[in-house]
Design brief:
The protein is 46% helix and 25% strand. It has a four-stranded mixed sheet, sandwiched between helices. The longest helix has 18 residues. The protein is globular, with a radius of gyration of 13 Å. The two termini are 19 Å apart.
């Protein structure tokens, strides 16, 4: 998987630091079949951290397409909002651990 040089958001940084602290293996800002994902974890688990821009209809449509393609390829896609990660990151990690 190719890694991008995309700058991480505050929420992505917080989640990354929790992954490091909990020793959860991950790759960040990678491409899977031409689709950029925020994190990929063992067991074909993809984690996306969505900001307010994902509320726009055109972005939401792209998100649904990405989700369909990834699920068709056997990936389990988990989405969190920035606010979920920033204010309840430990619960996010709990959800992720259950999926991995």
């Amino acid at each position: 998987m190719k890694r991008t040089k995309k700058k991480e958001t505050w929420a992505e940084e917080k989640l990354r630091k929790l992954f490091d602290k909990k020793k959860i293996k991950y790759q960040q800002h990678c491409y899977i079949e031409g689709l950029e994902v925020d994190f990929i974890l063992p067991g074909k688990v993809v984690v996306e951290v969505d900001g307010y821009v994902h509320l726009k209809p055109e972005v939401a449509k792209k998100d649904r397409r990405k989700e369909y393609i990834l699920q068709a390829r056997g990936y389990n896609l988990i989405r969190f909002t920035n606010l979920e990660v920033l204010y309840n990151a430990r619960n996010c990690v709990k959800v992720i651990n259950e999926a991995v």
